[in-house]
Amino acid sequence: MADLIQIPRSARWQIAEHLKTPWAAIALLLLCVLVLDPGNLWQTIILAAGSLARTSQYIVLAVLFLAYLKATGAEVLVARAFKGRETRMIVLAALFGGLAPFCSCEVIPFIAGLLALGAPLSAVMAFWLSSPLIDPPTLLITASALGWPFAIGKAVAAVAMGLFGGFAVRVLVAQGGLSDPLRPRQAASCCGCGPKQTDTPVWRFWHEAERRTRFRTEFVGNALFLFKWLALAYVLEALLVQYVPADMVARVMGGSGLMPIVTAALVGMPAYLNGYVAPPLLAGLIDQGMSTGAAMAFVVAGSISSIPAMAAVWSLVKPRVFALYVGLGLSGAILAGVAFQMV
């Protein structure tokens, strides 16, 4: 009889995967409110739904732009930034990092391919530091949650981080350090995973059936991805505003001194969720008393040093390059927070 009611392993795996989705997290959070504070459930839903509705126009613009870049094959423009003089490569890599239409799973093989093909570590580091910070969807979502000044400030910080890291690495390499950055297995297994610099973007992609299909796939996939993560983000923001005491946030991360910025950068490194969840949470924290400089330090540090990103970086490069990446990310986040606070 017991054998008849056992759940197959594949079914258990599928159930476990569903329980790890943002939808499951939303359901669990709302269930907790229903059990612990039922009178506040409806207010939580209204706050989250209202914020999500206000952001919907940005979601549409973001996924349309991202789908267009994917359908046209615009990634090749980023690859071409890694050709020519090293100084020019660093500048272009930092600039293109904010526009690169790559998700987190695509950046690592892209970086591995560039290093295996002999691109200088300085230019690759410039792209590596700037790329996680901002992209078109993140820019629009940040603007909708925190305003255009903060979104533009984050974009400027992304480029500045790329330039800071790229030229710092160039100095270190010139002094004889950081040679052969890839782990042996990565250097040997990257053949074919680098970008193709000989391709040409097809801006009028709708004339090709394959590109039209890719546009539809990217649009639907990214729309669903953004919607589910933003739904979770706004539920978390509603809970944050309602249950986290404003005076506690103001004591820890308020004010204009250096310590709130350093604290936010250190907290942001392990606590960061992703670039789409962070802006609504930061909006709630700022409303509770968090300084704008601390908010900038938090989002910059978290983008560069989130746990999935760190695991991927560790698997790709040698420990000294990994340590440099983390150090540049943390110090750059603090500098970005101080600069934004002063401005």
TrEMBL record:
Regions crossing the membrane: 21-39, 45-69, 90-119, 155-173, 219-240, 252-273, 293-314, 321-340
Keywords: Cell membrane, Membrane, Transmembrane, Transmembrane helix
Ribosomal protein among keywords: no
Membrane topology, record value: Multi-pass membrane protein
Cellular component GO terms, alphabetical: plasma membrane
Lineage top rank: taxon: Bacteria
Database matches in InterPro entries: DUF318 (IPR005524), UPF0718 (IPR052923)
Subcellular location as annotated: Cell membrane
Main location per the UniProt record: membrane
Pfam families, per the entry: ArsP_1 (PF03773)
Homology family: Belongs to the UPF0718 family.
PANTHER family: UPF0718 PROTEIN YCGR
Protein name: Permease
Native source organism of the sequence: Cribrihabitans marinus
